[in-house]
Design a protein that fits this description.
CATH topology: Rossmann fold
Largest sheet: 5 strands, parallel
CATH class: Alpha Beta
Low-confidence stretches: none
Order of helices and strands: EHHEHEHEHEH
Strand order of the largest sheet: 2-1-3-4-5
Number of strands: 5
CATH superfamily: Response regulator
Length: 129
């Protein structure tokens, strides 16, 4: 059964980048990616669907990635969340800790590192790549 990753990012080109980066997992039906251009769109989907990992940009219009994490935590969700941003998270560190954020990645990020984190987080064996 495929693992589901929800990606929330207001930059449209990120959908293609993630799809290319994780293509080997997608082709083998180990991963299914769901893309959302904003947090409200994601929250509408999230309440009725299962997801194994959430990747969210921090700086987005409307509900920021930090606010999204606070909402998700208030819902009692235990899904791992990785935050991604082009800015350093210094001002967000305590909030990230309180929300149980597992990882923070700076943009531009190392796709190989992200792929290894995803493999480890979701129990995907490197033998499948």
């Amino acid at each position: 059964m495929s693992k589901v990753i929800a990606i929330i990012d207001d930059e449209p080109e990120m959908e293609g980048i993630y799809s290319m980066m994780l293509a080997s997992f997608i082709e083998k039906k180990l991963l299914h990616l769901n893309f959302f251009s904003d947090s409200k769109q994601f929250l509408g989907w999230f309440q009725n669907e299962k997801t194994d990992l959430i990747l969210s940009d921090i700086n987005m219009p409307g509900i920021s990635g930090i606010e999204l994490c606070q909402i998700i935590k208030s819902l009692g969700c235990r899904t791992p969340i990785y935050l991604i941003s082009g800015y350093e998270p210094t001002e967000y560190k305590s909030i990230m800790h309180d929300c149980g954020i597992k990882n923070f990645l700076s943009k531009p990020f190392d796709f190989q590192k992200l792929q290894v984190l995803i493999e480890s987080e979701l129990g995907l064996s490197a033998q499948y790549t």
